[in-house]
Amino acid sequence: MESELHEVVSNKQVILRDLVESGSLKESHMLLMTGTAKLKVPEGSGNVVLLKNLFLSCNPSMGVRMRNMKVGNSALFFKPGLPISGYGVARVLDSGSPNFKKGDLVWGLTTWEEYSLIIAPGTLFKIEHDDIPLSYYAGILGMPGLTAYVGFFEICSPKKGETVFISAASGAVGQLVGQFAKLLGCYVVGTAGTKEKVNLLKSKFGFDEAFIYKDEPDLDAAIKRCFPEGIDIYLDNVGGRMLDAVLLNMKIRGRIAACGMISQYNLDQPEGVHNLMKIIQKRIRIEGFLTTDHFHLYPKFLELVLPQIREGNIHYLEDITNGLESGPGALVRLFSGRNIGKQVVAVAHE
Amino acid sequence: MESELHEVVSNKQVILRDLVESGSLKESHMLLMTGTAKLKVPEGSGNVVLLKNLFLSCNPSMGVRMRNMKVGNSALFFKPGLPISGYGVARVLDSGSPNFKKGDLVWGLTTWEEYSLIIAPGTLFKIEHDDIPLSYYAGILGMPGLTAYVGFFEICSPKKGETVFISAASGAVGQLVGQFAKLLGCYVVGTAGTKEKVNLLKSKFGFDEAFIYKDEPDLDAAIKRCFPEGIDIYLDNVGGRMLDAVLLNMKIRGRIAACGMISQYNLDQPEGVHNLMKIIQKRIRIEGFLTTDHFHLYPKFLELVLPQIREGNIHYLEDITNGLESGPGALVRLFSGRNIGKQVVAVAHE
Lengths: 350, 350
Description:
Chain A is an alpha/beta fold.
């Protein structure tokens, strides 16, 4: 029986061929290669965990790490020739860590391959509640979910009755922030890139209003139409032109959580934001955050969100592609906005 | 004796001729006119105070109010044909308000003229300490002083040993923030537009380093030279290109207090800021504020700053022009950066 674990198996990997130097991310920037994996933690390797990856999350921040940006921190860039990494859901096959044992389900930072040796398992979280679809831990119950929680509740200190605007609202973070805001009694407007997504925001996620930003020649006017009295809270997932238009429409003491700037990740030169003077006149606070700084809030987040999911008060939409070989295409879909809901790659079904 | 107060006197005023539509503010945008004033609060006019203006403060925010900016709040614009207004120091000549009596010295919001009827004296503060030069209440002991206090202590929550960068550092707000930061034990660097100002920062105000931003082709490199480890706190008085370069050099969890964006007030179209993505990676907080929201802190501010001024631990440099007729020129000087220290107009000497 145990000898099975010593088996050497083939291990497909998504390798970064080259950093994106200019233009959009293409599938050809990545390469599917097949190596081998030994299904056992090497002897004496210490605190190491062997994972069988089940679901991988396509996260906008991966776009930053795949691009050779002059202003970026090059230590964060993915290394050409090596597999890319991100958050995912996995089964523990073997463990040298006292915190994990064979058979555990976990979510956390892993590598885009079938089997991963995790040297620093500090960013793995044990999955305690498996009555929920496991893929949810690559999204609403994983990093994007915690991001929505931190961005909305911790960074923006929302109050009942406030007005909330969300960009990239049908994405993993946006759909949850919108539902949190509705549960709190806020007025919520989202924007997305297609009619289908905008319809979903209203019909499935309960947004009060939504608009297709690509159809609006004047974003300022579109926002004013939805917020005649202005915006208290803006969850910014896109940056750029939308942020500029939002600055014109913030209320006094409005708060902007800078979650992401996906509109900028695929540009060679980031767009200029011109309306920052509004920050002073309107006493606006803009705050960036990384969810990794707030992992200690994960239990509190689960306590809030799990019952709401179970009772059907919070909905979640995923866009799952099948097989690791679908990964590069899924990432490209994300940056072109063609995904509907959280983009996930199913690597293996158990 | 009392009949003296009913006297009608001539009253010089600085009138806005036209809002600035494009280009820089010029003296010709203003007009000196002489009307008359009755040296008595009109019967039955209620809570009204008659002031004899002594000193007027040239404040960067006046530039915003003199310009027809598309993104501005037009309710804040000065009205062509009427005298402009700002903060100043004055003697109460007559009062219908229970809070002020004849002979009181006050600082607060007044009009650019010799005698002003103040309809809403809620923004006037009685001057209790006149062992300090009265002109100081148009600067270090008035709005700019309180702005420095709020921007540094309230918005940036500074800690001993942190690194602090200040733009327009020789101005009224900048010189005081720098001295507050040094008293707290911070490392302080300022930037200004001339060699003379930069020398003052180091010799008079005790800054650790200072540089002439106009002489630096690469602001990013200049900042990196002074802050190899990065910036914890940036007091932004200028916005634009400098803010963009600072964003590249902020430390993790750095704080930016948006006090002013003087580099933008004289532009027809504000410059774009391109490096806002840094806000996320570095978890930066940018917060705008208006000092008028923090008037309740004025006594606390005075308690801190008065002994330091009296003991010579805090220095203050003024650039005073004489006579209301020098006012338009003093304002233009401010926006061209030709003033050395706080730009004040002395209207009358008692």
